[in-house]
Write a structure and sequence with these properties.
The protein is an alpha/beta fold. It contains 10 helices and 7 strands. A 7-stranded mixed sheet has the order 3-2-1-4-5-7-6, with helices on both faces.
Length: 290
Amino acid sequence: MAEQLRLMHVHAHPDDESSKGAASTAKFVAEGVDVHVATCTGGERGSILNPGFNHPGIVDNPELIGQIRREEMDLAREILGIKQDWLGFIDSGWPEGDPKPPLPEGCFAVVPLEEAAEPLVRLIRSFKPHVLTTYDENGGYPHPDHIKCHEISVYAFDAAADPDKYPDAGEPWRVSKLYYHLSWSYPRMKAIDDEMTKHGLENPYAERLKDWVVKDEDLKRLTTRVQCAEYFHVRDQALLAHATQIDPHGFWFAIPHEVQEAAWPTEDFQLVKSFVDSSIPEDDLFAGLR
């Protein structure tokens, strides 16, 4: 393929682009790939997860978090070297309680599917990505916005190519490949645990690993491993840009880089749909397109 390759990631909130696949994003950008992130919501209902975060006025004006998270996204975008657009939906928040309360009126997760997918279809037809990534059917974890992000991404992947869908949203475009992000897999966590033990280090994920229920269908998901260890530091910088969400002394940075690089030097994906010839396993999201 002679034209510049284009990759689109669809994420639920600002910071998701840095916590899922950011090292491979940085690798592709360095290779000359045009990378575009679509962010579904502004993260307006997110909590401040970094205990060291301090911002004048945030206590008296909690609604300020939406503005701050946009500023954090601006910084992460520059670090990763990507383009980015907001789809314009309102964060649904994380419902707590038993039973869980109804989701807020008008939030992203309650917008009807065809309405919620329209701005993404429009963006796909404008940017014309060759590859699109998103979350699996569980949202990676079951946040209502992550599940909705999965739903609109899968729907828009097909709808963007259909001239009968959204006729006023631009010329149809068929994306060649659709992937799901795979962040926390058992093989990856076990490899890291083995490497930490080898170095005499305490694994902060040991309890999680011990309680992990290994399912055959989950083990079969991994189709594509992108070698990107040399960009782990860029991923970390992008994460730290989201200062409201990321504790610099927290679990994101608990595993030394040398352990990560030795144990699992890739970021991982599941190929879900493809209109090009490529064989599994892959080591490139653009296998069959280059």
